[in-house]
Amino acid sequence: MKLSEVVQAVNGTCEADGSIEIRAMASLLEAREGDISFLANQKYAPQMKETKASAVLVAQDYAGETAAALIRVEDPNKAFASLSPIFGPKPVVREPGIHATAVIGEGVTLGKDIYIGPYTVIEDGATIGDGTVIDGMVFIAQHVQIGKQCHLYPQVNIRESCILGDRVILHAGVKIGTDGYGYTVEIGAQGPVINKVPQIGIVEIGNDVEIGSNTCVDRARFGRTRVGDCVKIDNLVQIGHNVQIAPFVGIIAQAGIAGSAKIETGALIWSQAGISGHLTVHERAQVAPQAGVKEDVPEGEYVAGTPAIPKRKFAETLLFPRLLDKLKRKVVDLEAKVKALEAR
Amino acid sequence: MKLSEVVQAVNGTCEADGSIEIRAMASLLEAREGDISFLANQKYAPQMKETKASAVLVAQDYAGETAAALIRVEDPNKAFASLSPIFGPKPVVREPGIHATAVIGEGVTLGKDIYIGPYTVIEDGATIGDGTVIDGMVFIAQHVQIGKQCHLYPQVNIRESCILGDRVILHAGVKIGTDGYGYTVEIGAQGPVINKVPQIGIVEIGNDVEIGSNTCVDRARFGRTRVGDCVKIDNLVQIGHNVQIAPFVGIIAQAGIAGSAKIETGALIWSQAGISGHLTVHERAQVAPQAGVKEDVPEGEYVAGTPAIPKRKFAETLLFPRLLDKLKRKVVDLEAKVKALEAR
Amino acid sequence: MKLSEVVQAVNGTCEADGSIEIRAMASLLEAREGDISFLANQKYAPQMKETKASAVLVAQDYAGETAAALIRVEDPNKAFASLSPIFGPKPVVREPGIHATAVIGEGVTLGKDIYIGPYTVIEDGATIGDGTVIDGMVFIAQHVQIGKQCHLYPQVNIRESCILGDRVILHAGVKIGTDGYGYTVEIGAQGPVINKVPQIGIVEIGNDVEIGSNTCVDRARFGRTRVGDCVKIDNLVQIGHNVQIAPFVGIIAQAGIAGSAKIETGALIWSQAGISGHLTVHERAQVAPQAGVKEDVPEGEYVAGTPAIPKRKFAETLLFPRLLDKLKRKVVDLEAKVKALEAR
Question: Phi/psi of residue C35, each to 5°?
């Protein structure tokens, strides 16, 4: 698209050559030649000198230096967003309908306006609510219940009898209802015998939950592993059996929550953190990236480190090298003084 | 199901109103209204006050307070387990048979009583043993050998020529036989040239192995990556190329084992731990959650921390803040005394 | 294969009984009975006493002790490699062709000599370059562009409008273009309201990139998440939205890179490391396994620990126990001396 056309599209003004070609959108630092970017927050003004964007949307009164063509607009943020339909990926629209290759079992209840993609399998007794989109290559086992207006991306698997609420988004490769990790060990005459503990519970997911790619949620040993309303889980997260996640919890990529742990409302588990089994992270508590939680986290507390301790205490441990060095110098000093005193 | 019917089913006695509806099973803390729970271990007796279960199975002589209806039985544990067929998810039974949509290559050897699900692909020369269940959307590449009574869940991939023993369970999304991470770097005239090292070995998995969802086991550079009999691996674990895992090893979620490491019999690798390449975790050793092992772990040792050290030493490091504080106060005290002495 | 035939195949000499059966290749330590191994590097000579290999390829002048049959050759390394076609897994050859079950959308552009496997779906408007192999059960969404001679293994998903260069290898279960983790929270009259931030950018992957099994790369919030030429990523890695990875970067298993971080040319991120969002790992820097990077890493620096610090400083912290102990003993000694002085 020509720059002049972009200027028109955002209802802006531009003194530069309108014939240059604009191909994509990017932030100032990520932009390459042919990209259009924007400056809405003055914090990023220094990036105007470095940007490789061919054009930048700026406020009417912008006066800084840059090599890019400037397009002056009322609201650079809004103007930039308005370009998404032009330069962003074409949105995927799934018109209701069931692909000819989908395998639908017996006794399946399908709501209205459902989309089911190619090579998806829905086994006997499953229920799918109105307006739900199930992409291709999704495997939904027997007696699964899925609510309204959900979106399941390709290669999701939901094991038997698990339950999803409304408006749940499961990204590609999510696995719901895998057997939890549970064994008993007997020492027999021929050595140890390992028996699998049957995992005969389910996973129950509330409304407005979003779960990232390749994340796993294990079914309960009995009863339910529960993911509450409005919980947002990132990619590659592990949720063990019987974990109870309250509403409005956030769990960032690659974090892991061991069996029967309880995460209360509004808690935030950062990336690569680990929560041991059978404990509680209380309301609005936060667990820092890579922290390893081995005991309950009190309400509103922010913990860090392995084993996790309050962030403020953890920060103190980071001062140890300096503290230790200072102490060492004092002891050397004292030793000299004591020696001198002894020689008196 | 009415409470009175539950009481009958477990051959118990109950003084409460038998008409209330029981819908599901749950532990005391996880239970909601309509759930039935149980108290078998007196450790959990305090939870009887908090539980939201509508009914609880208790021993004949239980005398504590609770809002739930009490069903008295001989053995609450057994009685609870006996309710699983009623309230638990309906078990999935895979009757032998090959789904019409399964793609079976040339020269495939199929044993007796095999189930193969929809949209599964089994390529040329593969062998599947008697009684094995292969769910839908599994991809089994050329010349793979799978033993008897295995269960492969949906979206598993097994790359060419890998070998599985008998009674192996692979949960949804497991990837067996991916190329290991191996490159050589040459510095050429135009900068670095990166060459892929061919990964032409296989993965060999023993009998009675269970592997959790989305776990990856890389094929050997040459020879075999080996997972021994009775090894139990959780979800999202990474096993590098040429790793050798002896029988009866346990590996918990999100742990990672780098190339050519050796894990000996009965060792236990806890969640999110990392084992560096080319070293040995000896018999019955344990690696704590999030530990980072950089040298051999002796037989029976329990290591923690990054880099991992014996657990007892690691515990000492946790006392440093207190120790350092104490030392600091002593030095301040000494400084005062020395000053006084100098002034004499 | 008989040992005598192996001797002939490698053009070597052997004094042992040529009738024993050789079945597989393995390194000295991994070998079992029936395996052939090799000794090329004298560092591994001590393993000759322990090896369970039935035969070992050695140099002409090798004189050590071993129970294995010795095959003397000019170059043991080369001789061993030459046995791969015999004992290694049969290589999988994908002859050009489109499987009858593949679903190809409208307006798809297919190059020459392409292989598309069973149950693969390629949606409308996608482009696939010459010589590319797309295995079975791959889901390629609308308007995706894939270059020449790529290889996509089973159960890969590429979301809409993402772009791959030439010779890209994506292993089984890779998910490209998942929505990034982004929400805004408003506190409404009925409590918090969580809104999803539209993720309307793409992922752009350069040439000669290899990505390991079950790794996830999120699409940009807007613009592009970028993976540069010759980047090699291992299994189970998380790449957040808008991450910018320069050419020749290596990222080892289970590492995670948060949104908008920038990884410069030649940097190396080791396993299970975590990189926080919006920062830069500069050229040729390295991040140790399990390190947690919270600020920019300077060019060529090697950082370790959480939060990550230069490796040399991190090594110093490992000396703390000894240092603290030494200091403690000095203080005890000083206390005694001061007491004696005070008593004078």
Answer: -95, 150
DSSP B67: S
ipTM: 0.93
- Give A 221-250 residues with CB within 8 A of chain B: 222-224, 226, 236, 238, 240, 242, 244
pTM of the entire predicted model: 0.94
Domain residue ranges of chain A, discontinuous segments joined by +: 3-87, 97-313, 319-344
| CB neighbours of residue B219 within 10 Å | 26
The Cα-based distances of B161 to A131, C312, C331 in angstroms read 43, 45, 65
Is B277 within 8 Å of chain A by CB? no
CB pairs under 8 A between B and C: 183
C-beta separation of A236 from C181 below 8 A: no
> Is the domain covering B97-313 a CATH 2.160.10.10 domain?
yes
Catalytically active residues of B, by annotation: 241
Residue numbers in C near B236 (CB within 8 A): 214, 236
Closest CA to C60 of C12, C119, C3: C12
Domain B3-87 matches domain B97-313 at the CATH topology level: no
pLDDT, tens only, C130-162: 999 999 999 999 999 999 999 999 999 999 999
Q: Using 50, 70 and 90 to split pLDDT, how confident is the model at C181?
A: very high
Ramachandran region of residue A287, left (φ > 0), alpha (ψ -120 to 50) or beta?
A: beta
Name the residue in chain A with its Cα closest to that of B53.
A223
Residue A325's nearest CA partner among A333, A313, A314 is: A333
Under 8 Å between Cβ of C116 and C99: yes
B193: which residues sit within 8 A by CB, 6+ positions away?
B185, B186, B187
For the domain covering C3-87, report its CATH number: 3.40.1390.10
Q: Locate the chain A residue with the closest alpha carbon to C137.
A: A137
What are the tokens at B231?
């090894």
CA angle B291, B292, B297 (to 5 degrees): 90
- Distance between CA atoms of residues B116 and C135, nearest Å: 20
Q: Are B84 and B25 in contact (CB under 8 A)?
A: yes
